[in-house]
Amino acid sequence: MPHTNTDSSGLSRYGWTDALDRAFTEHYEAGLVPARISRVDRGLCTAITASGPARATFAAPHPPGSLLTPCTGDWAALRPGAEPHVVALLPRHSAIVRSSASRSSHGQVLAANVDTVVIALSLATPLDAAKLERLLALAWESGAQPVIVLTKADLVDAPEPVRAEAEALAPGVDVLITSVATGQNVDVLAARLRGTSVLLGPSGAGKSSLGNVLLGEEVLATGTVRAQDGKGRHTTVRRELLPLPGGGVLIDTPGLRGISLHDAADGLEQVFAEIEDLAAHCRFGDCGHDTEPGCAVQAAIAAGELPERRLRSYRKLQRENAWAASRTDARLRDERVQQKKAITSHLRATYRFRDRQP
Length: 358
Description:
- By secondary structure, the chain is α/β, with parallel strands linked by helices.
- Among the domains are: about 5-90, CATH 2.40.50.140; about 95-250, P-loop containing nucleotide triphosphate hydrolases (Rossmann fold, 3-Layer(aba) Sandwich).
- It contains ten helices and 13 strands.
- The protein has helices at about 20-25, 25-30, 130-140, 160-170, 185-190, 205-215, 265-270, 275-280, 295-300, 310-355; strands at about 35-40, 45-50, 50-60, 75-80, 85-90, 95-100, 105-110, 115-120, 145-150, 175, 195-200, 240-245, 250.
- Helix 3 links the parallel strand 8 (about 115-120) and strand 9.
- Helix 3 (about 130-140) packs across helix 7 (about 265-270) and helix 7 crosses helix 8 (about 275-280).
- The longest helix has about 50 residues, at about 310-355.
- Mean pLDDT is about 85; it is low at about 225-230, about 230-235 and about 330-335.
């Protein structure tokens, strides 16, 4: 039976379930309360509890950039009181992770426990196929379901060709044409959202405007875009989780200028599924899809069945993902070496102290 603590029932609008309640049993016994992280900034986090939001501290037992640092969307065990403190995080069922902006080996969790990733792209600018492929890899790797939303339909005369192009890049993914100005398909999108949804996309795509319509009020800051290139300023400066009027929650995120992949091999396989399928029919198992005889991928390109740009993009993202993985492996090796050195140093100091004793 789930825990019958009535204090936690108010969290249901933020996604609290009986399964989470059962998983929280040991934390209840320790006097902790469940909370969902809605925002992280300035070394603190806003934690939503059944009795309302609280600004809470959290420990930093992990190095900077650790994937285990609290982030928006996390479920947490909170020690209540005059100075609330996040004691532990519940296991995540999904996480959107990219390589850090510094292109170090660290990953950055953009949002946790997400069910739907809304990829927002503006129809007012040409569709960037490579950027869409990156965003799709990010979404699929997280374990969530992507939905592509083409915004600002009121600013263009013929949005259908763009939708067809997006559908070709993302088989099996819903593609919606929307307009906040006219309300086109906003209700369809609202009905499509389930559980926790996150808005991803570049600055100027209209994410915050779309979010305000979905939320039913002007909660998120919006801004204008430059006429010459359709790019916008970062009006959203942090990730924030808010409840939707029809149920579920929405996470708005700052515009993504850099979308570097981090351990996204499965996501890439999903995005480029047609290349993976073709590769299975190559003569050689280690075919590089270049000049090898019997290459099914090159045969599909020659027959006009596969755009060559698609293969170039696939190779580029594979190289990038492999590079990030190698950097991560090297960092982990260095951390193990440093840890071993620290232990050895401590033992030597202990032995010297012991030898000096009478």
